[in-house]
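User:
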Amino acid sequence: MAWGLTLLLALMAAGAFILATLAGDYGWGVRVGGAAWVGFLSSIVLSPIVASFVHKRGR
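Assistant: Predicted structure:
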């Protein structure tokens, strides 16, 4: 459950990054690479936060 929620939030962050870069003059390679980086870092940061939240909610 926690990994699925973490993945969902990381994908949402990556999508938000792509939407934010649509206003600029960036190539799609830069957009996708940046979104992958944002998604990867978001999953690292959110993993312990989401896991503890799900664990506390289960009690």
